[in-house]
Design goal:
The chain is mostly helical. Helices cover 76% and strands 0% of the residues.
């Protein structure tokens, strides 16, 4: 298989995983709040990481160094993931995914502050194009801002922060160590937040299957995406990720009668263009 075909196969797995997690998340939030959802998801994810790393003999890679950076990364990801699941309950899934695609643009804007990278002219142009795309997708009304759209944008910022802190961690930490502390710390964060009201709901028997899907698909999506980026350049892989939008739009229409709105696709196309401009500038020889 060529590198592009291999990447396409991995991205098919990532798209299926992200889409199934969105559907399962909407099912579970009918009886659990997002903090409870994240609690059970993290526990399931921890069990999977422990089992797989243990069978592979890689638990020794787990390191107790840089726990402060692990905590910052996981607070960012935990916040973004909670807002993502919350947004799914308020706006169409296609709109959530479209706004989530702004995450790389937030990385371009925030990297100079967090990673000390330079804000180039092309990064600024990409961020500007992406912002116009956001306005087309969200169609904000200054008199009544849509909470779901704001939550989706907050999720994108949270994911961007998580990606940047992961970049700093991965220089000295193995993937196993990052995933181990991700599931451990997010279990603790979810337990703290879910227990603030003194009531943590126990899932019903019908909620456990979608919770298992969320726990497994969440890890599988990032595993597939990482492998796609390993075999092919980001400039080829990331446009494949855009296929998530039409897939989830069809799923939303079939399962929830969500309309296929031109503005979502037009704005998302502009956001994709902005990401493509940014990626092309990054890989161009200097």
């Amino acid at each position: 298989m060529t590198h592009v075909a291999q990447a396409a196969l991995w991205m098919t797995g990532a798209i299926a995983s992200f889409s199934s997690m969105a559907v399962a998340g909407r099912m579970v939030t009918l009886e659990l709040d997002t903090f409870e959802l994240m609690l059970y998801r993290s526990v399931i994810g921890f069990a999977i990481v422990l089992a797989v790393a243990g069978l592979a003999g890689r638990l020794g890679e787990v390191s107790g160094k840089r726990l402060g950076l692990h905590l910052v990364r996981n607070v960012s990801h935990f916040t973004g993931q909670n807002l993502w699941f919350w947004a799914l309950t308020m706006i169409p899934m296609a709109q959530v995914f479209a706004l989530e695609f702004t995450s790389p643009l937030w990385v371009a804007v925030l990297a100079p502050l967090i990673l000390g990278e330079r804000l180039t002219r092309m990064r600024a142009l990409a961020a500007g194009l992406g912002f116009i795309g956001i306005l087309i997708v969200a169609r904000p009304n200054p008199m009544a801002l849509e909470p779901g759209a704001l939550a989706a944008l907050g999720a994108a910022i949270g994911f961007a922060g998580s990606a940047m802190f992961t970049k700093r961690l991965i220089a000295t930490q193995s993937v196993v160590s990052v995933l181990f502390w991700l599931t451990v710390m997010q279990t603790g964060l979810a337990l703290l937040c879910a227990g603030l009201d003194g009531d943590i709901a126990w899932p019903s028997p019908t909620a456990w299957p979608p919770l298992a899907v969320i726990g497994f698909a969440g890890l599988m999506a990032h595993f597939c995406l990482t492998n796609a980026l390993r075999v092919a350049p980001a400039i080829l892989v990331m446009p494949m990720d855009f296929l998530r939008l039409p897939v989830i739009a069809v799923v939303g229409m079939a399962l929830y009668a969500e309309p296929l709105e031109w503005a979502v696709f037009a704005g998302a196309a502009l956001i994709l263009t902005a990401n493509f401009v940014n990626l092309r500038a990054e890989v161009r020889p200097r």
